[in-house]
Amino acid sequence: MSATPSKEPSVPGTSSLREQRRVVMATIVGTTVEWYDFFIYAAAAGLVFADLFFKPAGTQFAQILSFITVGISFLFRPVGAFIAGHLGDRYGRRVVLMLTLVMMGVATTLVGVLPTHTTIGLAAPILLILLRILQGVSAGGEWGGAALLAVEHAPKHKRGLFGAGPQVGVPLGLLLASGVMALMAQIAPGEAFHTWGWRVPFLFSVVLIGVGYYIRRRVEESPVYEEIAERQHQAQMPIVQLFRKHSPLVLVAALVFAGNNAVGYMTTGGYIQRYATDPKGPLALETSPVLWAVTGSAVTWLISTAVAGWASDHLGRRTTYIVGWVLQLVGVLSLFPLVNTGNIGLLFLGLAILTIGLGFTYGPQASLYTELFPASIRFSGVSISYALGAILGGAFAPTIAQALVQATGGTSAVTWYLAGMTAVGLLATLILRDRSGIPLGPDHEAEQSEGYFQGQKPAYASAPAN
Length: 466
Description:
Elements: H1 17-47, H2 49-53, H3 59-75, H4 77-91, H5 93-112, H6 117-120, H7 123-153, H8 159-187, H9 191-197, H10 199-203, H11 205-216, H12 223-230, H13 238-264, H14 271-277, H15 287-315, H16 317-339, H17 344-360, H18 365-370, H19 378-392, H20 397-408, H21 412-431, H22 445-448
Membrane topology: Multi-pass membrane protein
GO molecular function, one term: transmembrane transporter activity
Keywords: Cell membrane, Membrane, Transmembrane, Transmembrane helix, Transport
């Protein structure tokens, strides 16, 4: 390992206060735009895509096919994660974030102008699926870069708070997506929404992408990567090294996210929206009030996510997660009893309770993942763990929920499924050691490469900074 240079621009936390604020803003805005694009697709899949693109398959199967297209994109997230991980570890975090933002925006805008099955037949669902796959590839590369850029710029005692930046972008994306969808459902109600109203949120993505691109291009590269590049310590084959040395860690980290993601996709995947508004379902509520309730729950999710990031700097990542899993289980058990009342206020309450737990099992994730993996393969590690967790968790959660309700005639089986996924996340968390405060720079690769499981002796002094 070469000697430390005279200046240390790469020690995490040495960025200027102005640059740190700019990084946080860039990660929040960028991930908000990315997930707005991702979530308006899921909302449209629950509300209109079954009729517009899959109607020949029959009423019930058409809806399952529509939700399957939501899940298909997750299968391609690892492709995006592998590509972005390699590029991010070899060429930097910032360039990857620019590419993923543009890719997502192009795919989303094209969905907004896509002809339906009535117009071009089978080509319509095929093109829809291809565009959703492109969204999946983009999403697979987006999160890892945003997480690392935020956490690697952060002071050691504020990694959880800074890392909550890209995490907050997800509920902000849901808030924006649901809000715009709800607004269009009011401006163009009924058949008008079905005909053209749903397209406007997709086309609005052009404006958001422009804003996100402008903000991100003004952000400096991660100081950790700058040090890696200066010392020419880039891994030649980061993904090969990751799986050869850290496969068990990737799996456990993926299971942590899976426990959160499966539950979160009850709303972000469009399932609750469809269940509550289905005209042939038990509730048959109006679309606009349900979308506003989901929008309101995005606010509680946003707040709890930010609070959890801050709390993890004081309690440690692991303890914050454990509290979160307990809160998430409470939310899971109360969700459908409240939703099934058919009362919009109680539906919102059920979603709000659920999102408190979701925030506490999501807010610390960026800092947790960043502190788990060695510097030279960190982008690959966090991106691939995140993508695999998305497949194991949220990819087909709406499809599974829809199939369980159709098979059993009720929602009890869905509750048990979500409770089981919460237990998986808790067990995975208990396996991990809290590594809050571990040095992130390339001088500490040996320390970063061991001691991440309970029972292993860490080569560093770990303690949450107060």
